[in-house]
Design goal:
Blueprint lengths: L2 E2 L17 E6 L5 E9 L6 E5 L13 H6 L3 E5 L9 E2 L7 H15 L4 E6 L1 H12 L4 E7 L14 H9 L9 H6 L6 H11 L5 H8 L5 H8 L9 H9 L9 H11 L6 E6 L8 H8 L9 E3 L6 H19 L4
C-alpha cells in the first residue's frame, strides 16, 4: 500500500491549535503499517473523552471543544482518521473501505488502550465510532452522537438498489457552492447524491471549498488550516472516497456489518445522547432514529444545537462541549 505523510511544515502556526502530536502505528491490512496521529490532552488519570471527526475535517475541528474538557478535568483523545490530518494517507482510492477504516481505528483503540471513554462522534466519526462502540461496548462509558448515523439499508431489498443507481447516474457534477442548495431542495435526486459525486469525480474538488460550504463562515487562515493536510491531489484520496463509502444503497457490502452493529446498539444501555443541529441538511432526521433504536437513549434529555450547521464543533464548539459535560455529570455510567 503506497502512502504519503503530510510534511510537518504544513501544520506550522495554525490558529488555535497549540497541541502536541502523538503517534501510534497500526497494521494497514496489506502487510505494512500506518501511522495514526492523535491529540492527548489533560490529566492522564482524568475521565476520558474521545472526539472523532468526519470528512473532510481532522482534529483541528475540535480545537474549541478540547480546551473546555481539559479545563473541566477530563483527559481528551482526538485521533486523525487514516487519510486525514497528520495521519498517514494511502494514495489509491481503492485502498479506502469502510471495513478498513473500522479496522484501523479498532487497532488504534486497542493500542492506546482506551477505557471507559465518553465518545463524541460527528459525521464519519459516528459511522466509524458507533461501529467501535458495537465492537467494544465495555470500553465506552457514554456516547454523544452529533449530526451522524449508522445507515443499514432501511430494510430495502438488494434489488431496490438498481433504480437508485440509475438515478445516481443522472446526477451532474456541481460546484461546491451549489451543494447546499441541493441538500435543501425537496425536488429531484437526494442532496447526498450530489455530495458523493462532487467528492468522487469533480476535477475542482477542494477541501477548503467543502468546509466553506457546510462549515460556516471562516477566515482565510482557518480555511488554510483545513486544507493543510492536503498539499496536493495525491493526499486527497481518503477525503474524496469517504462519501462513496456511506452505505446508502441497499446492495452495499457494509450493510450486514452495520446491521450487526445495530443489534449491539439496540441493547447498549449506557447513557446515549443525541446532540444534533437544528439546521444540518446532511443528517436531518437521523437523531430520531438513534433516539428510537439505542437502548441507552431512552429517557435521556437529548439536546438540539441551534444554528450549528453540519460542523457544529466549528460553529458552536464551547456550547456543545459544555452540554456534553453536563450530560456526563448527570448520568452515571452503567
Amino acid at each position: 500500500m503506497k502512502t504519503v505523510r503530510t510534511p510537518d511544515a504544513q501544520f506550522e502556526s495554525l490558529p488555535d491549535y497549540p497541541f502536541a502530536p502523538h503517534y501510534t502505528e497500526v497494521p494497514d491490512g496489506d502487510g505494512g503499517s500506518l501511522r495514526i496521529h492523535y491529540l492527548d490532552e489533560g490529566p492522564a488519570d482524568g475521565e476520558t473523552v474521545l472526539l472523532m471527526h468526519g470528512q473532510p475535517s481532522w482534529s483541528y475541528l475540535y480545537r474549541f471543544m478540547l480546551p473546555v474538557f481539559v479545563q473541566a478535568g477530563y483527559r481528551v483523545l482526538v485521533p486523525d482518521l487514516v487519510g486525514f490530518g497528520k495521519s498517514d494517507k494511502p494514495t489509491e482510492i481503492d485502498d479506502y473501505t469502510y471495513a478498513r477504516h473500522v479496522a484501523w481505528m479498532s487497532a488504534w483503540l486497542e493500542a492506546v488502550d482506551v477505557q471507559d471513554a465518553n465518545l463524541f462522534c460527528q459525521d464519519w466519526g459516528g459511522l466509524i465510532g458507533l461501529r467501535l462502540v458495537a465492537a467494544y461496548p465495555d470500553r465506552f462509558a457514554r456516547v454523544v452522537a452529533a449530526n451522524t448515523g449508522l445507515p443499514d439499508g432501511g430494510g430495502l431489498p438488494a434489488e431496490a438498489a438498481k433504480p437508485m443507481w440509475d438515478l445516481y447516474a443522472t446526477v451532474p457534477i456541481v460546484k461546491a457552492e451549489d451543494l447546499g442548495g441541493h441538500f435543501a431542495s425537496k425536488d429531484g435526486p437526494p442532496g447526498f447524491f450530489f455530495w458523493r459525486k462532487y467528492c468522487a469525480e469533480s476535477p475542482d474538488f477542494n477541501v477548503g471549498d467543502v468546509m466553506a460550504t457546510v462549515g460556516g463562515e471562516m477566515t482565510p487562515e482557518i480555511r488554510a488550516a483545513y486544507e493543510a493536510p492536503f498539499p496536493s491531489a495525491e493526499y486527497e484520496a481518503g477525503a474524496r472516497k469517504f462519501p462513496s463509502l456511506v452505505p446508502i444503497f441497499p446492495d452495499d457490502v457494509e450493510i450486514p456489518a452495520n446491521q450487526e452493529a445495530w443489534m449491539v446498539l439496540e441493547a447498549f444501555e449506557k447513557p446515549f445522547r443525541t446532540s444534533f443541529s437544528d439546521d444540518d441538511p446532511v443528517t436531518a432526521g437521523m437523531d430520531a432514529v438513534l433516539q428510537k433504536r439505542v437502548a441507552g437513549a431512552q429517557g435521556v434529555d437529548h439536546v438540539t444545537i441551534k444554528g450549528g450547521g453540519h460542523f457544529l464543533q466549528e460553529t458552536k464548539g464551547p456550547e456543545v462541549a459544555n452540554e456534553m459535560i453536563a450530560f456526563m455529570k448527570s448520568t452515571p455510567s452503567k
